[in-house]
């Protein structure tokens, strides 16, 4: 005999919440044992017991479990039609189309979809609209555009709020004033900038300024864009209303993009070089406690993406071909994570002199010459290598360009002449290599130069190292040159985080000023990384995301500016660093000190 489907619906529930309800009903209404209920509904003893326990706990707390859905009834009458019906009929009488009516009602602050408008017109028998003349269409378009729509009251347009003009004379440091910023973490750099005497650096470098925006204010406002991972092409005006960011620069608000562009082109090459040299002179003892004597040098072409200009073509690794670009030079200590030199005023015919220019620059700053220079084959010529050896007495390691004939001769050498070695390098531990150490003659190089041909470095053909040092072992020469990778990593950071390649943008900064700001911003992040425990090797982008990109409230007090940062998981690391432990007066903020607290 077939079962009763109506009865089976209650005795053999399918839905989980229905089965849950029937289990509880069998327990509390019918008084059945838990094991009996579990067998009846195909559940385990523990499952039924936990459901009973949770049900009792919920009722004891005053909560009634919901087993059944309560139907929600919709509106019983039209809500929009009565409001807009008369306006739709009146506008159709003036030969407005459905789309024109929709735009006119929206202009008046009334919401009505095109489908609703069509429904009302059909109910009124006004669905059909004959062909309109061009004059009628233009009249209707002008009425909607101007807001003079017959029978509709159009609210007057609100004037957009305009940001204040940057003016140091409007800076308000009244005690009790409070500001909020979504990037209050930028003030973490203020103690370091004050320690570097940035106001004195701007004065000594003869940086331009006005009564409204002094040189320090201009410099800090542009530096803030670098510190905040803000691409210039994304508009500075995003920050025009941020009074807290203006306070960081010693202004009421940050300058507009036009002011920043105009300022960058008022500066001369001497001012750019003076700014960077004085910055490195002050920052070098702090960021490099041990004397930097080994440097990696490299070139970086900055592409120009605007209209064709009188720029030289340089090979761009990003595109794989030569294009109009500005050649820039960088120098970095291999032992200390700090950029020491950058220059964009380099022509193709003079780029081979870069090692000699850097030696003169470093000697003028520190009074000593570097001990070692590391660079690749395209940086300079054999004639400059000869000067480094005979005149400057500086050790160098570089790569020799490999010709087909040269490689063929090396590969023909018997394996017995090659020496095997093992080197330890980051990410490639215990790498086995073979090298051939000999002396060769180079064009425009007087005498013999030491050449070390190496296989096993990840290339099919041998890598040729050139050096004038005769004392270091071949293995040590290879390990020393591997340190040059540090500057390539830094150049990648400068492009990806500090937006070094953004020449064509809303804010067309002079590239020389942009390079100086990049060196300064790089130093700021290196300082922050050194002060935070466990973050010494952290890259700027990660530091920005974890620490700098933090909102907070700034409160001006009598002698201090209290920066209360919002709660974030990495705040204990900031608290442990005690960035405000040594109170440093901020000259551009009325000599006030900073005090940090963390939620």
Descriptive notes:
It is a single chain. The chain folds into four domains: 5-60; 81-146; 170-271 and 505-598, no CATH class; 274-493, Transposase Inhibitor Protein From Tn5, Chain A, domain 1, CATH 3.90.350.10. The chain has 22 helices and 14 strands. The mean pLDDT is 85. The chain has helices at residues 5-11, 16-28, 34-41, 45-60, 81-93, 98-107, 114-123, 134-146, 190-195, 198-204, 215-227, 243-248, 257-264, 269-287, 354-366, 382-390, 404-412, 474-482, 485-496, 511-531, 540-548, 571-577; strands at residues 178-181, 294-303, 313-316, 321-333, 339-346, 372-374, 395-399, 419-425, 428-441, 448-455, 463-467, 552-556, 560-565, 593-598. The strands form two sheets. Strands 2, 3, 4, 5, 6, 7, 8, 9, 10 and 11 form a ten-stranded mixed sheet that branches. Strand 6 (372-374), helix 16 (382-390) and strand 7 form a beta-alpha-beta unit. The protein is of the alpha+beta class and 599 residues long. The protein is extended.
